[in-house]
Amino acid sequence: MKSMIAYCGLNCENCDAYLATINNDQSLREKTAKLWAALNNAPILPEHIYCQGCRTEGVKTVFCESMCAIRRCARERGAATCGDCPLVESCQTVSAILKNDPEARKNLMG
Q1: Residue 107: is its pLDDT beyond 70?
Q2: What Rg, from alpha-carbon coordinates, does the chain have?
Q3: Which of 30, 61, 63, 92 lies at a 20 to 30 A Cα distance from 37?
Q4: Which tens digits make up the pLDDT trace of 23-80?
Q5: What residue segments make up the domains of the chain, in order of their start?
Q6: 5 forms bridges with which residues in the sheet?
Q7: Could you count the other beta carbons within 10 Å of the beta carbon of residue 4?
Q8: pLDDT above 60 (res 10)
Q9: Are 29 and 36 spatial neighbours (Cβ–Cβ below 8 Å)?
Q10: pTM for the whole structure
Q11: 11 - beta bridge partners?
């Protein structure tokens, strides 16, 4: 599995935080912070939008690093991704992503 597939199956290469980081794109960083702040009703600032990928070494957004229940669970279980977990199909933690993003499911199950 590609290292840029997150524990949940999302492709980090498509994430605006990742793209802003690898391209050093301040405009995208500002746009992403504004969108994420509105969507999450949280004080997300452009300086929070740095990430080099969920499963790779390097910087991550605050959410991905310390708040993501999916990432925390997979790491505690020693799973490369949720696709390695026998409970993935019944898991409430990752269910919303798998239900709403067929590509994430394909990345995990394929």
Answers
A1: yes
A2: 14
A3: 92
A4: 999 999 999 999 999 998 999 999 999 999 999 999 999 888 988 999 999 999 999 9
A5: 12-109
A6: 11
A7: 18
A8: yes
A9: no
A10: 0.87
A11: 5
Tokens of 27: 């405009």
> Considering Cα of 72, then 33, then 101, then 1, what sign does the dihedral take?
negative
- Chain centroid, CA 54 distance in Å: 6
35-68 b/e with 16+ CB inside 10 Å = b? Answer: ebeeeeeeebebebbbbebbbeeeebbebbeeeb
Token output for 75 = 């790491």
**What beta strand segments (E) does 1-110 contain?**
none
**CA distance to 46, 63, 83, 109, per residue, from 87 (Å):** 36, 23, 9, 13
Closest among 11, 10, 17 to 63, alpha carbons compared: 17
